[in-house]
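Purpose: get a first structural picture of the assembly so the mutagenesis plan has something to point at.
Setup: four entries, given in the order below. No constraints added.
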Amino acid sequence: MKQNSQLFKGSLSTIILKLLDENGKMYGYEITKKVKELSKGNVELTEGALYPALHKLEADGLLEVKIENIGNRNRKYYSLNKAGKKETNLKLKEVSDFIIQLQQVLNLKPTY
Amino acid sequence: MKQNSQLFKGSLSTIILKLLDENGKMYGYEITKKVKELSKGNVELTEGALYPALHKLEADGLLEVKIENIGNRNRKYYSLNKAGKKETNLKLKEVSDFIIQLQQVLNLKPTY
DNA sequence: TTTAAATACATAAGAATCTTATGTATTTTT
DNA sequence: AAAAATACATAAGATTCTTATGTATTTAAA
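Result (structure tokens, whole complex):
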């Protein structure tokens, strides 16, 4: 991530899982664009962070991969398998809890 | 942190700064207890994370240190200097923005 | 009263996750 | 024709944490 990198550290895998959950299947480059779009240009996911994270999620048995040929170029489409969907729900709960706890400790008002 | 460690990674220095801002002066052990209290026992700051973080903030020129003797034991009281107060405000803004952006990307409802 | 738990500091090895830099190659835009 | 965007990938290094260990005093429990 370029922007608040220290803070986003740790939430990347959750972001990837959630986007795959919402969109069915996505390829790496598409994910970087989506994150930028959703954050209105504020969050830029770097490739050096994304691809290793995708490979790790795959190695952890959470993702399915399908390579598609577009012209002479390959796209690796990722999607969630059953374990991936379960993990997504878990991670989203963890992030929600994390936000609540962080707001409690920092005495921050919830962001409306 | 014991609990959501990957997520809390990066927010520790902000937590320390904010607690010092609120409480004037605190010593390390006191900070761990305060975090536990504020999070209702959910967040446990480990000493292996805390002390290096305090030393770094001090090395960065954000903290004042005063050693006090309680019986035969030493306490290192930390407090914010001017630069520390400025940095605290900056970091708190960063965390607020981070939470908003994370909620946007993950399509989470704000936590009321 | 002696043992365990709490208080209070500290550091060091290792793990995890990211940044930065670099590389390759194709396609589209200028 | 050149530059930018698309699309993947990896590797060295930085940062920040975990886990383990160490020292020492004070308080609570057995």
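DSSP finds five helices and three strands in chain B.
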